[in-house]
Amino acid sequence: MAARASSPEKRPGFFSQLRTLYTFTQQTYKGLPWLLVGVVLAGAALGVGIGFLIPPVAVWSIILWGVTGLLFGVLMGLTLTTRLSTRAMYKRIDGVPGATGHVISTSLGRSWQANENPVGVNPKTQEAVYRVIGRGGVVIIGEGSRGRLTRLVNDERQKVQRVASGVPLTVLYVGHGDEDVPISQLATRIKKLPKKIDRATMAAVIKRVDSVSQTLTSLPIPKGIDPTKVRAPRPR
Prior knowledge:
The chain crosses the membrane at residues 34-54, 60-82. Keywords: Membrane, Transmembrane, Transmembrane helix. InterPro entries: DUF4191 (IPR025445). By secondary structure, this protein is α+β, with helices and mostly antiparallel strands. It is built from seven helices and five strands. The protein is elongated and about 75 Å long.
């Protein structure tokens, strides 16, 4: 008798995810508990204040507005925790090999095709080159020292230009130099590139570039970062 298929892994519930998010954020922002208490109390106070200002002033009206303000404060607290968790994530992965792959594989959406694995890597220094293809063309991203990345970046540039001539090609370097892009702004920078090719051309470019290139073994994601729980933000 065939063995029964194992049941799918149960995803953590809402409160479990919330607790994980809070714990992760509080490790970076030690004052988070007091900040959240202040936000919730400020929301409740705002609601009570509105209750006194809007006639007719009655006990039931003040209580109703107070509860409304309390719920608003809780909502603002959740929003604040989410934003701070994103900042905490970027602080913890900044400068760590593999951070670029994590960001581009979770933050660009369907308009771009990206892989967390590099297309070129220096095994000694763990400096790597990543590639993204989308409506804005092809983006080559260097992670590490510009000087030591020159050969890897040029090799990838030549591969792309050989099979996708005429397609916009952008080269970015992740870092904190004058012309570098901070890891926290990488997804935003890529998404702001003007759309130069249609979806059909994009699909053709992906196929052509994949035929002359290959992705390598993924670099390790920084310890303490669970990409299933902490996502990079969606720039507005």
